[in-house]
Write a structure and sequence with these properties.
Layout (H helix, E strand, L loop, with lengths): L2 H14 L3 H7 L3 H5 L20 E2 L6 E4 L35 E4 L5 E3 L4 E8 L6 E7 L1 H4 L5 E8 L10 E2 L4 E4 L17 E9 L4 H6 L8 E4 L24 E4 L1 E2 L5 E2 L13
Parallel strand pairs: 1-11, 2-12
Antiparallel strand pairs: 3-10, 4-9, 5-6, 5-8, 6-7, 7-10, 10-11, 13-14
Length: 275
């Protein structure tokens, strides 16, 4: 292919990916887009994208409270939000052009927990809006849920010590929160320490690829509101939008200060411990 044709192809790919996440992913080699290597595919500021980079579902209108009245870290910016934690307007996104995950404002070094049983899928580091990240795959045979999903922990203070393929239990510490990918730009030189949690539902026919570590994260999954995985009895992520209002108000389990899961039967728990 000539240099002219190569340049034209790159320009078209960039024009097609108007989201920051898409632009970043389009620049990755094929192995990184599969998510099987150290780099892993994923979206800055929320991940997400258009056709060839995975689909997204609109915000289903879910909200959370916590079991036993625990004072858990609240959501500073919800899925689908047009604004950041401080009320400023977002210029990139993932879900319908808006925020592609949930943000929790946390002190640097806060232990981050596996929200469900799973297996480390990929680790890596992106640039502005993304920082150091970790992907964990949560498959039906591990969680007992009807669908599988990937959870991405973003803006970590340092690379996770867990290698791809490592199995994790619900509530296990998997990384430490930080502000990588937030220093400069909108957040200024101080950055913004927080967890950005992205969740992508895995297409049923791609579950074997997820189990083997060969899943193409952005192509074989659908971006969803992370709160969707906390809805009890949900058979598919698409059902969340049509729930009765009472079922959209979720009571979420958590890990307490002693390391105990409350309630003990909770399938999915909050990504940080609660006092």
């Amino acid at each position: 292919m000539s240099e002219t044709r190569t340049a034209r192809r790159g320009a078209l790919a960039t024009a097609a990916c108007v989201l920051a996440a898409c632009i970043w992913a389009a620049a990755l080699p094929a192995e990184a887009q599969r998510g099987g290597g150290k780099q892993g595919g994923g979206g800055g500021g929320g991940g997400g994208g258009r056709a060839q980079f995975g689909q997204s579902l609109p915000a289903p209108g879910l909200s959370v409270t916590f079991a036993e009245g625990a004072a858990c870290a609240p959501i500073a910016s919800p899925y689908g939000a047009s604004t950041r934690y401080d009320g400023s307007t977002r210029m990139s996104g993932g879900a319908e052009g808006l925020h592609g995950g949930i943000d929790l404002t946390l002190k640097e070094g806060t232990p981050l927990l596996a929200i469900a049983p799973g297996i480390v899928h990929a680790t890596g580091e992106g640039g502005q809006l993304e920082g150091i990240f970790l992907w964990i795959a949560h498959l039906p045979e591990q969680t007992g849920m009807p669908f599988g999903f990937l959870a991405k922990y973003q803006h970590l203070s340092a690379p996770s010590e867990l290698a791809p393929g490592t199995r994790v239990a619900r509530g296990r510490v998997v990384a430490l929160s930080g502000k990588t990918g937030t220093v400069g730009g909108h957040y200024g030189s101080a950055g913004y320490p927080h967890l950005h949690l992205t969740v992508r539902a895995i297409a049923a026919d791609k579950l074997p690829l997820a189990a083997s570590g060969e899943l193409r994260i952005l192509r074989d999954t659908t971006l969803i509101d992370p709160l969707t995985v906390y809805v009890p009895g949900l058979q598919a992520p698409e059902e969340a939008a049509n729930l009765d209002p009472d079922r959209k108000r979720l009571t979420v389990g958590f890990v307490d200060a002693t390391g105990a899961i409350r309630p003990a039967a909770a399938t999915v728990t909050w990504p940080v411990a609660c006092p």
